[in-house]
Structures are given as C-alpha cells and as structure tokens.
Amino acid sequence: MTEKSGADILVEALCDLGVEVVFGYPGGAVLPIYDALFRSKRIRHILVRHEQAATHAAEGYARSTGKPGVVLVTSGPGATNAVTGITDALLDSIPMVVITGQVPTALIGSDAFQEADTVGITRHCSKHNYLVKDPARLGAVIHEAFHIATSGRPGPVVVDIPKDVQVATAGYAKPGPIQHKTYRPQIKADRAAIEQVVDMLAAAERPVLYTGGGVINSGPAASQLLQELAKITGAPVTSTLMGLGAYPASGPQWLGMLGMHGTYEANMAMNQADLVVAIGSRFDDRVTGRLDAFSPNSRKVHIDIDRSSINKTVRIDLPIVADAGHAMQDMIHVWKARQHPKPDIAEWLRRIEGWRARKCLDFPETGPNENNGEIMPQRAVRALYDATHRRQPIITTEVGQHQMWAAQHFGFDLPNKWLTSGGLGTMGYGLPAAIGAQLGNPNALVIDIAGEASIQMNIQELATATQYRLPVKVFILNNEYMGMVRQWQELTYESRYAESYSDSLPDFVKLAEAYGWKGIRIERPDQLEAGIAEMLAHDGPVMVDCMVAKLANCFPMIPSGAAHTDMILQANEVSGTMDDEAKALV
Amino acid sequence: MHIREEKAERHTLAVIVDNEPGILARIAGLFTARGYNIESLTVSEITADKAVSRITIVTSASPATLEQIVAQLDRLVPVHRVHDLTAEGDHVERELALVKVRGTGDHRIEALRLAEVYRARVVDATTSSFVFEVTGGTSKIDKFLELMAEVGLIEVARTGIVAIARGKDAA
C-alpha cells in the first residue's frame, strides 16, 4: 500500500464518506489539511468568519439535509470558538463531525502557541471525541467518528489531529461496515412492548401523541409513519419545538406545540390525557412545566433511542428503547394485523375543540402601550408565512421571543424545514444555520427569522453569504429589546429592565448594504406585505429590518414553576412578581 | 427558599470499559457534570491484552438517580456494560488498606495484638513502627483504623472498594 500523509488520508476518508461540504476556518495547526483540500479539489470548503458559525452552519446543513455536517478548525481558539456549536449539536442531537487541528504531539501539554486541551474541553459537550496520535489509525477513526455521529441518537463527534500526524505518512484503505466493540445503539423495539403500546392506544379514551426531534432525526419516512399512526389511531398530535414539521401543522389532528409557549389545547390535552405516547421527545423542562403537576392522570409510554432519556424527569409506565421510525412502523404493522378499528374518542376530540375555541394564539393588532400604526410581531410572522408557505421555505431562527412567535405562527407541514436552537438556546444560531441550509438546498427559500439582539451575535456571517452568493433572507423582528429577557423582567421583576434594552443598534439597512446585501426597512403595517414581496423578489441575500411593537409579550406562556393548567393567555393576567421558588427556576 | 435533597442509597457499580485514553476522565466527569456522588472509585486493567478495564464505583443516590447513573454510564461510547451489583444481588466487596503505626512499649504490643485480631499482616517494621496490610469490607477497615488511632496511627492508604458478584456466573 502506498503511504499518504495524514492530511491526505483525512481528505480521502471524507471523500469516501460522501462529504461534499466542509465549514471551516484555517490556522497554523490545520495548514497541512488545508493544503490537502486545495490539492484534492473534491470537497467544497466554505470559509466562515468565526468558528462558532462553522458549527451552526454545519448544524443547519445537517438538519435540513439529513446528512452529517462537517467542520474544520484550527487548534486553541479555533477549537474553543467551536465549543458553543458542539454543545448546541449535542443538546439538539444533530449529527456533526468536527475536525480540529492540534499542536504537534511532542508539544502537547507544554502550553504551546494556540494549544488548548481540545479533547478535555469537548469531552462532556460531544457525543464522543478522539485525539489521533498515529496516522495509521486516522482513516479508521474518521470512519468511526461518522458512524457514531450519525447513528443511534445523533450528535457531535470531535477528532483532534496533531499537526505532525497530518504530515506523517501511513497507509489507508476504505474500511468495510463498522461493527463497533462497545457502541451498538438499539434500533428495533422489543416486540412485546410494541404489542403493549398498541393495546394501550386501542383502549385509551384520551390519548395524545407527544412527538419530538427524534422523529425528524429518524428521517422523512418517520414523519410519514407518524401521520399514518395518527390516522389509524385517531390520536391528536402535539410536538416539541424540535419536532415541528413531523406532523403537518395543517393536519386535522394537530394540537400545536406544547410546553412553555405551546398552545392552550396542547397543554390542556396533555394535562387531561389518560395516555401519553412520547415519540422521540424527552420531557424537557420547557415541555413539562411543574413536574408534579405534569399530565397527572395519564399512563406514559416513552419511545426513545437513548435509554438515558427514559425516566430522567418523568416516570414512565412503558419504556421502549428504539428508533422512532422503526417503532412506529412496528406499531402500525401490529395495529393493522389485529385489524383494530379506529377507536371512538369523539368525546375527547370534542373537549379538545372546546380548548381550541379559546384561540390562544390570537393577539391584539396593536402593542400594549403604543399608538396604532405599529406592527405586531405575530402579524409580521403570519405575513411572512402567507407570502412564502407555498414555496415550502426553510426557516431558521435565533433565540428569544421571535423564535417562539415563529414556532407559534409559522406552520410547518414538512420535516427538515425548521432549524432552531432548542436545547441550548444559542443566540446567533440562525444566520449561520441559514447559510448551511442554503448550501445543502441551493434552490430552497431560506429565511432566518431573527431578533435585533441575537442577529448581532454572528452578524459577521453576512460576508460568508456574500462570498458564496447565497440568497439567504434575514427577517429581523426589531423591538429594540432582548425581548424574552425583557418579558421575564416584566413578569418577574416588576418591569425593572436591567440591561435588556438594545442600545446603539446599527442601521441594519446600511449594514446589509456594506456587506453587499440588499437592505429593506419595514416600519408600518401598510409596508409589511410590500416589504416582504420586495425581499422575495430579490435573487440575492436580503436583510429586512422590521420594526415591531416594542413591549409585545409572547403568549400563551406557562410561567416557570407553574403547571400546564396555569397558562397566561393574555397580558392582563400578568402579576409582575414571582416567589423565590419560581425565580430560582430557569 | 431552601435547596432540597433526595434520600440516597449506597450502591456499588461495576463498569467494564475499553481501556482508551481519557476513559477515567470521561466517567469521573460524567459524575461531576450531572451532580452524582462518588464515594469510591477504583480502576484496573483486567484482560491479558490490557484492552479492557474494570471500574468499581461506590455511589449514593435515590433509586431514580441510580437508574439514570447506570443509563448515562452505559451510553458512553467506550463502555461495554454497567452492573449495579447492589441491585443485581449478592456480591462481595473488599478493600485493602496500608496502615502506618508508630509507637513503643505497650502501644507497640497492643498494635500487634489488634492487628492479629483483624488479620492484618505486617509488611514493614522498624523498632518504632509498623506498616500493616489489612483487607476486608469498608466497615472492618474503618473499625481497624479507629483502634489504630488509639495506639499511634500515622498514615493510611486505602484502595477503595473492589467488588464482584457471588456465584458461578460473570456479572
């Protein structure tokens, strides 16, 4: 076997794994890899402007295509800048492989220039990580890293490669299918458990399917299976933030998102259900609210590929460790084989219609303390939806009020169209994620629904979109506040707005233009439709600065420490104070 | 407002892992990151090719947290399997201590007599000191150390618990 340098082995292994795009930023400790990429010309490298953005772009690429995202950064600050995105991918189960350069093996531990203990730092924010000290092992490690990142519960895997290992030579041969010694995720469910959950669904009077990002991760077929399962069982469907789009928002059994900013009907249905079937969701604190009051009278089935998700916060009556898609397929198969009729749950559906009639997502057309003539942020999201949904756009978001309004008011009918930072709640996610999504879906309409505070956290990526001629759209709901922080201060600290005002904002239109983007400002309701149309008509990247009501709050809301039944639906239900127990919760 | 704590039970876990660099940091870090207790942790290679290590962890946690600890350990990539020896049935626990005692005259004689009762072996001696090697369960060693404190205990080194299931089968 002819020997190759570690850098060439890496590039060849990436090619063998079908990698088309790498998001990265060069530096001293990865120069041999960059040279190998340059010579090979087989992989497209996207130069970001900050390593954090490389990780979010890789997440956006992964979430929108189903393929793993790949990141390449240098040692030290390159790696530490990537840590936020690695953690984000861990919390949201996004398949990602991060290649980091490292100082030469002889210098490791000497506090060398741009040295950081990358495997130490990323040990607990990655699914797995490696420090490769032998070029002969490099090819196998890269293949194993992709296997681990993409199988089971997906997640980020970090491969740290010292510079001398990139230069030293060894043989490389493409390995066959990986049979890992210790890592064997359970894909197929236990047959008896599947029969049991089918029995429970057939007998339930008040069932709810509570789905999450695991359905999306299982692939588009799982979303089809979810629709079929819902159809044959008649059970209404709610979803977490991460699972939006798996069951269509226009579907007849859709309850809307549940949890802190979920719908009244979804949360009341969870509260009153006699059977909750959780599929690829993890009973996150944003979903459950106060644990001792969470769905108190239901039996709970939890289907999850990660055994540690089961019984973590909520006691489960029937645990099923399996891939969401496989488990649903088995359930449908058993249901049909037994020729179960569709259960009669008309009374339950009537009660749900009663809750739905509260129209919890309705909002006033003017802001709380303001004159007419201001745009309500919810109205802006709906206008965006009306103008674009036929094109099945990919929507990314930053984090905060705008994110929740987008989740509430932008209906998703397909999976892989909704990219948001759910678990970690990373401001600055949306723009680089949109760039990654656009690269993976060149013909799609990709819009980052942003806030004026969050967008500034990775604003430098405007240049990346310009460089690669990516026609992404950024739609800023500009209320001149870190809106969700301000909202919590209004609810909890009697409106003492400590440091939540977005002072000294840039002129976003001029800023966009400075980066070679088109900039549009929308200030009044009568400009909304035309502004959005202008944004869509432009074939390059566009940033829209949409001025919205400054003090609008995101409702419905379950305050921290409250039960699903204690939702705040309207502004006049806000007391402005909370006890210490509630204040201590996130 | 006060921070609440759950009632804890003491359990001994055996964790069989691939002997790769960083595995101990991975496991110890999991305990600190998730707020679990480690009362004792021992680790050693157990196969001739040095590819596999056995880590014995003594932890105290509520039953729900214990279930989580096992599940969280089990999902680490290099972990072969995790056994909650306490939950799985009868098992034997042993610990070894090296105990240095200094003294002359009656104290010295008393230390030797007590060592005999506790089946501690003398592994080093000078005219004014002994090093005893004692093995047993944690409570036996605790008791031995308590007695040695009265006759001139200077220093102690303990291995922490190692444990194995009773009976003919591997855990």
First-residue to last-residue Cα separation of chain B: 44 Å
Q: Let me know the number of strands of chain A.
A: 20
Strand proportion of chain A: 15-25%
SS content category of chain B = alpha+beta
Assembly of the depicted chains: heterodimer
Shape designation of chain B: globular
Number of strands of chain B: 9
> Could you estimate the helical fraction of the residues of chain B in percent?
25-40%
- The parts of chain B where pLDDT drops under 50 for at least 5 residues are none
In CATH, what is the class of the largest domain in chain B?
Answer: Alpha Beta
CATH homologous superfamily designation of the largest domain in chain B: ACT domain
What does the main sheet of chain B amount to? 5 strands, antiparallel
Topology:
The complex is a heterodimer of chains A (586) and B (171).
Chain A: E1 4-5, H1 6-16, E2 21-24, H2 31-40, E3 44-47, H3 51-65, E4 69-73, H4 77-91, E5 96-102, H5 118-122, E6 128-131, H6 135-150, E7 156-162, H7 163-167, E8 169-170, H8 191-203, E9 207-211, H9 213-217, H10 220-233, E10 237-239, E11 254-257, H11 264-272, E12 275-279, H12 285-288, E13 299-304, E14 318-321, H13 324-337, H14 346-356, H15 377-388, E15 394-397, H16 401-409, E16 418-419, H17 430-440, E17 446-451, H18 462-467, E18 473-478, H19 483-492, H20 508-514, E19 518-522, H21 525-537, E20 542-547, H22 580-583
Parallel strand pairs in A: 2-3, 2-4, 4-5, 5-7, 6-7, 9-10, 9-12, 10-11, 12-13, 13-14, 15-16, 15-17, 17-18, 18-20, 19-20
Antiparallel strand pairs in A: 1-8
Helix pairs in contact in A: 1-2, 1-6, 3-4, 3-17, 8-13, 10-13, 11-14, 15-16, 15-21
Chain B: E1 9-18, H1 23-33, E2 40-45, E3 52-61, H2 63-74, E4 79-84, H3 85-88, E5 91-102, H4 106-117, E6 121-126, E7 129-136, H5 138-150, E8 153-158, E9 162-165
